[in-house]
């Protein structure tokens, strides 16, 4: 088997302790193929808690770029990907030069800094990828502290969460972008998450575009790691807020901004796109109205 050179793409914002825990867990991976190397590319979006400085101090091999707080998650991930391409992406086991400029990467790993990988997670992902072939994306399922799967692959138009199997990979249609292994051949075909999705939906769109291009996707057996909690409850569902405020929140960059949501629906949900485009906003308005009437 040829050598594996991983370009790990991460973003951070005011989560110093969690970011450091994620990097420590990455550094402690075991059972990897001989000769496996890392290049970690972290883009910090305006942290005020000392995250970039702490990372540079404790993990000097990590390439850290600081950008403005106005740079959304999806754009920061695209910047990390650009940095991995300009810097090669290989390197050593987080102990060499930042970014690892010595050779080009064979895989990108999207890694959310809130996820602490289990010690054999990368070995499991790479083993699944080797069995699936170079034209397949491999997703790592993530559980919360109670053992519930909170991020994974997704299936169907309703994006049902895929539970990981115990011993066999599970097929999926798209994926949450918390732990995703993208081989070079897939990257060359699909590219980065689309810039039209500034904060959310870029991962789902990427998976749908990959499937349309003939790329298969699988959830690796077992859980790849653990994160604190799960997806935050949408702010538009806060009890007692009025219709105008609820609609303002649901159309914000944190939830379903109009243009990106419409692009997603037009690309991936036709002929149901017109209905699906309007339905979350109509439900939000109805929920807020009923809440006010009952309150």
Report what the structure shows.
The protein folds into two domains: 5-227, Alpha-Beta Complex (Spore Coat Polysaccharide Biosynthesis Protein SpsA, Chain A); 235-294, no CATH class. The protein contains nine helices and 13 strands. The protein has helices at residues 16-27, 51-58, 73-86, 121-132, 184-190, 202-212, 243-250, 258-268, 273-294, and strands spanning 5-12, 37-45, 63-67, 107-111, 115-117, 136-143, 149-151, 153-155, 160-161, 170-172, 174-175, 179-183, 216-227. Strands 1, 2, 3, 4, 5, 6, 7, 10, 12 and 13 form a ten-stranded mixed β-sheet that branches. It has a three-stranded antiparallel β-sheet with strand order 9-8-11. A hairpin with a 5-residue loop joins strand 6 (136-143) and strand 7 (149-151). Helix 7 (243-250) packs antiparallel against helix 9 (273-294) and helix 8 (258-268) crosses helix 9 (273-294). 42% of the residues are buried. Residues 86-99 have a biased composition (Gly residues). Residues 81-103 are annotated as: Disordered. This is Glycosyltransferase family 2 protein.
In angstroms, what is the radius of gyration? 19 Å
User: Total domains, how many?
Assistant: 2
- The helix content, as a percent range, equals 25-40%
Strand content: 15-25%
List the topology elements.
Elements: E1 5-12, H1 16-27, E2 37-45, H2 51-58, E3 63-67, H3 73-86, E4 107-111, E5 115-117, H4 121-132, E6 136-143, E7 149-151, E8 153-155, E9 160-161, E10 170-172, E11 174-175, E12 179-183, H5 184-190, H6 202-212, E13 216-227, H7 243-250, H8 258-268, H9 273-294
Parallel strand pairs: 1-2, 1-4, 2-3, 6-13
Antiparallel strand pairs: 4-12, 5-13, 6-7, 6-12, 8-9, 8-11, 10-13
Helix pairs in contact: 1-2, 7-9, 8-9
């Amino acid at each position: 088997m040829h050598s594996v050179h991983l370009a790990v793409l991460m973003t951070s914002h005011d989560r110093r302790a969690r970011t450091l825990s994620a990097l420590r867990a990455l550094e402690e991976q075991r059972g990897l193929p001989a000769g496996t190397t890392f290049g970690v590319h972290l883009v910090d979006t305006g942290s005020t808690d000392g995250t970039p400085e702490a990372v540079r101090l404790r993990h000097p091999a990590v390439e850290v770029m600081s950008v403005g707080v106005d740079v959304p998650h999806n754009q920061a991930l695209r910047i990390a990907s650009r940095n991995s391409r300009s810097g090669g992406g290989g390197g050593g086991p987080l102990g060499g030069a930042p970014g690892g400029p010595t050779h080009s990467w064979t895989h990108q790993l999207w890694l959310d800094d809130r996820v602490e990988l289990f010690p054999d997670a990368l070995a499991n992902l790479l083993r699944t990828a080797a069995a699936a072939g170079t034209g397949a994306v491999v997703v790592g399922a993530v559980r919360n502290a109670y053992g519930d799967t909170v991020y994974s692959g997704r299936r169907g138009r309703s994006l049902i969460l895929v539970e990981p199997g115990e011993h066999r990979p599970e097929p999926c249609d798209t994926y949450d972008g918390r732990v995703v292994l993208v081989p070079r051949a897939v990257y060359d075909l699909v590219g980065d998450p689309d810039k039209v999705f500034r904060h959310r939906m870029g991962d789902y769109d990427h998976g749908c575009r990959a499937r349309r291009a003939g790329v298969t996707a699988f959830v690796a057996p077992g859980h790849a790691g653990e994160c604190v909690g799960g997806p935050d409850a949408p702010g538009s569902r806060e009890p007692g807020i009025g219709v105008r405020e609820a609609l303002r929140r649901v159309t914000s960059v944190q939830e379903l901004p109009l243009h990106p949501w419409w692009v997603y629906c037009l690309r991936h949900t036709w002929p149901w796109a017109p209905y699906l485009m309007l339905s979350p906003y109509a439900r939000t308005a109805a929920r807020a109205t009923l809440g006010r009437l009952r309150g």
